[in-house]
Amino acid sequence: MAEPNRDITWDVIAPRSVALRAFVVVPVAILCLWLVAVTGISNSRWRTNPAAAHAVWSADARAAAALGRAMLLGASDKPDTVAVAQALAVAALQRDSTVLTAYNVLGLGADIAGKKLAADRIFRYAHRLSRRDLATELWLIEANVARDDVRGALEHFDAAMSTSSRGWATLSPILLAALDDPQLVVPIADLAARKRWWSSGFQQLVAARATPLPNATRFFMRLNAVGSRPSEVSMQTLVTRLVAAHMPENAALLDALVVGARHAGVRDGGFDQQRGLAPFRWELTENDKATAERARRPDVPDNSALNFSVDGGFATVIARQLVALRPGAYTLSADSYAEEADGGWDLTWSVLCENAGNTAASLQWPASTKGWITHRSRFVVPSDCPFQWIKLSAEGSRDAIRLIGWIDNVAVAPVR
After folding, report:
1. Residue 160 in contact with residue 134, Cβ under 8 Å?
2. CA–CA separation, 76 vs 73, rounded Å?
3. CA 226 from chain center: how many Å?
4. What is the spatial distance between Cα 389 and Cα 2, in angstroms, rounded to a whole number?
């Protein structure tokens, strides 16, 4: 055990050997029952009512230290109260030198008295005894922050959050708010990459709540760079926020972590895989008017396709995907089949610029019940349109009732 700060002398905090005296007049059995009773009462009360616990069993080191802490926190501006609290802490350490609460009281007392170096040494000694004391870690976090020692502060964040659920609840919002500073993104990500029990929960917290969003993106990119693969669930949460905020470039960076590379064109044109993060893979409609799902083609059971059902005669988006086509001319092709079409229906492929919402192309094909038909249409992506929404919708005539159909082999290729 390392020697603590000499401002609190070793003779005071070291456990002294206490000679045990025989109780001659009290029968051994009665003595044992009394000890069990008073220590039981003290053990149950020292956390909730330290004064009562100390009154019942003044020899309980934990109760003495807890009472000292309660006095110190309740009247830290009164020197006499601080002195009494420290005396209780010293008495506690004379009985048990491992009672961390007593070190808290001595350290806080030194801090209140302006003895910062003494307080720092006491709390660091308590940290060496155990990383599980939240009060110790909180003080050391504050001390390191005051010194602009980011790495040191994060080490104590790690200790506090890793060993205490209360520490996680207290400190995770602070750590989240710290991501506002771009200079703290990398060290915080490095901390989360240690794969503690709280790491996955913190990833989700960052994905759902962190601002600014570019800093949140850098957090996940850094996790991946140091070999700690981010959770796809968390990245999907952040990608959804990024797309809603019209930051597709950041969203595409996270999608590339999942699929292994940036992908410019239509993905999963055969509807037989779901790699990547939405909306860089198909987002399929499901509501009370329309549903869409991947299913086995009725004519080729070994192949998957998009099966959809639409009720009513209004325009309904069936599926959509976000792509990043370079400016230029393209051909969009797809196979379609209307299994059931009550009334007149049209299928429309729309290409819309993500940054402005203007339509680069609207390609309308009639729904046919005469078997599978391959459609092809050309469109042009303008130069100021780096990301595009490709949307499939169905629109029926006034007398249209229901459309059940299939889509397969969707592809976008540059015009050569």
Report:
1. yes
2. 6
3. 18
4. 64
Check if the beta carbon of residue 81 is closer than 8 Å to that of residue 105: no
- Where does residue 369 fall: left (phi above 0), alpha (psi -120 to 50 degrees), or beta otherwise? alpha
CA 86 to chain CA centroid, Å, is 40
What would the two tokens of residue 43 be?
A: 């053990």
Tell me: cis bond preceding 212? Omega within 30 of 0 counts: yes
Pairing label, strands 316-323, 388-396? antiparallel
pLDDT for residue 313: 67
Region for 306 from its dihedrals, namely left if φ exceeds 0, alpha if ψ lies in -120 to 50, beta otherwise: beta
Secondary structure letter of residue 17 according to DSSP: P
Q: Residues 264, 322: contact at Cβ < 8 Å? A: no
pLDDT in tens, 236-266: 999 999 999 999 999 999 999 999 888 778 9
Quote the CATH superfamily of domain 283-414.
Answer: Galactose-binding domain-like (2.60.120.260)
Distance (Å, rounded) from C-alpha 192 to C-alpha 168?
12
Beta carbons within 8 Å of 211's beta carbon, 6+ residues apart: 179, 180
- Containing H/E element for 361? strand 359-366
pLDDT tens digits along 63-101: 888 887 888 776 667 888 888 888 999 989 998 998 988
- Tell me whether residue 165 is exposed, middle or buried, using C-beta atoms within 10 angstroms of its C-beta: 0 to 12, 13 to 18, 19 or more: exposed
Question: Tokens 């330290």 — which residue?
Answer: 50
> What are the extents of the domains in the chain?
1-130, 283-414
pLDDT of 47 higher than 80: no
Contact (CB, 8 A) for 85 and 1: no
Distance CA 83, CA 95 (A): 19
pLDDT of residue 197: 93
Helix, strand, coil percentages for the chain (3-state, nearest 5): 45, 20, 35
Chain CA centroid to CA 38, Å: 45
Write the DSSP symbol of residue 326. Answer: P
Note the pLDDT of residue 40. 36
